[in-house]
Design a protein that fits this description.
By secondary structure, this protein is an alpha+beta fold. It is built from twelve helices and 19 strands.
């Protein structure tokens, strides 16, 4: 179920802004948590729980800001829509995707803000705040590895699909597609004021992979690799029917994330190149309705300018910088329709920026109450500034 509410603007020519947060969360492994992930415990100014940063913190603060605006008697020029949407963690096609395709009038807007961004990254010049302007394309594939069944007691020179699958997984893990440098990545790296030479290396398609390999900062290394390459991650394997039967089929589910600008035929070519001589042993399957490219929104819009003005007032030493997110969000459904969509929020310095990537879909997810306060205040100020 998704919830939509709106504050109608008085000027039909003024822009409509949609604040969108998802309400679903991913599963947990209880043994890895220090506290109950579904108790929302508040301890020393920290709220613990699944979804605390992905993204119920923003969903809730958007709701608080919308309610404050509505009860204040605010009559804006432009229209504000608040959308609490289902299904994002399962791809979003039954949530935001369904609304965009089947209830377009209810979510018709000029701009969208959703996750992720706004975590202060310390630099020599102050704090960098990422505003997400694009994301990679989700191109999941199932690779079906074929073999010949036989008796497990006589394995010599058999056509064991599991053995072949092991080689396929290894090839996928070692595959290195060519790097691509996006404008948003280049600008983001430049804003970090890294040590001499590193900025140039991380924005050079011929040097970025070696630079990533040499980085001591693992979080930056993973981000740099994912933001400059189409990535292949074999994450699930199923095969075999009985321990004494040589398997004739193994399914490998691969998370492929393509950079914006990479076409579907290029993804197919990469898969074939990664498999090499094993390609003839593999059938590639994919859900055709969910196989889409990456998306990018323009960075010179009035909304981005308003975000910069508001955050500068609230965090004077901050600089808002466009960036690409390596994960997927519901923003893609609106970008596919030509609607600029961004990811933002505003966080305090209480939790170091290096801990956020670990918390997304990880253990001990948490958010501080000061960040919740800042985000709620920022949403309200932004709506008043942008919508009038």
């Amino acid at each position: 179920m998704s919830l939509i509410t709106r504050i109608e603007g008085r000027d039909p020519k003024a822009p409509t802004l949609l604040l969108m947060g998802h309400t679903d969360v991913v599963p947990v492994t209880l043994s890895g948590w220090k506290r109950d992930p579904f108790a929302a415990e508040l301890v020393d100014g920290i709220v613990w729980g699944r979804g605390a940063v992905d993204m119920l913190n923003l969903t809730s603060t958007m709701a608080v800001a919308t309610r404050r605006l509505a009860t204040s008697g605010w009559r804006p020029r432009g229209t504000l829509i608040y959308l609490a949407v289902a299904d994002e963690e399962a791809g979003g096609f039954l949530g935001a995707g369904h609304l965009v395709e089947h209830h377009a009038d209810a979510v018709k807007c000029d701009y969208v803000i959703t996750e992720s961004g706004g975590v202060p990254i310390p630099t020599k010049a102050g704090h960098t705040l990422k505003v997400t302007v694009g994301e990679k394309g989700g191109n999941w594939r199932r690779l079906v590895v074929h073999g010949t069944p036989g008796h497990g007691s006589r394995p010599f020179k058999t056509d064991n699909a599991l053995v072949t699958a092991a080689k396929v997984v290894q090839r996928l893990a070692e595959y290195r597609p060519k790097a691509r440098i996006l404008d948003a990545w280049r600008g983001y790296v430049q804003s970090l004021t890294l040590e001499p030479g590193l900025t140039e290396a991380l924005t050079d398609p011929d040097r970025v992979y070696d630079a990533v390999c040499d980085l001591d900062n693992l979080a930056l290394a993973r981000e740099a690799h994912a933001c400059t390459h189409t990535t292949f991650s074999p994450n699930i394997a199923h095969g075999g029917t009985k321990v004494n039967v040589i398997p004739d089929r193994v399914d490998i589910d691969v998370d492929i994330r393509s950079l914006p600008g990479v076409e579907q035929h290029e993804v197919e070519a990469m898969i074939k190149e990664a498999l090499g001589p094993l390609a003839s042993r593999v059938t590639v399957e994919s859900p055709s309705d969910r196989r889409r490219g990456g998306t990018v929104s323009p960075t010179d819009t009035p909304l981005i300018a308003a975000i910069r003005r508001v955050t500068r007032r609230m965090m004077p030493d901050s600089t808002v910088v466009p960036a690409i997110t390596t994960g997927g969000t519901d923003a893609k459904f609106f970008r596919w329709k030509g609607i600029p969509a961004y990811g933002f929020g505003l966080h305090s310095l209480r939790i170091p920026y290096t801990e956020y990537p670990v918390m997304f879909h990880g253990h001990n997810e948490r958010v501080d109450t000061e960040s919740l306060k800042l985000s709620a205040m920022m949403w309200e100020a932004l709506c008043r500034e942008f919508l009038g």
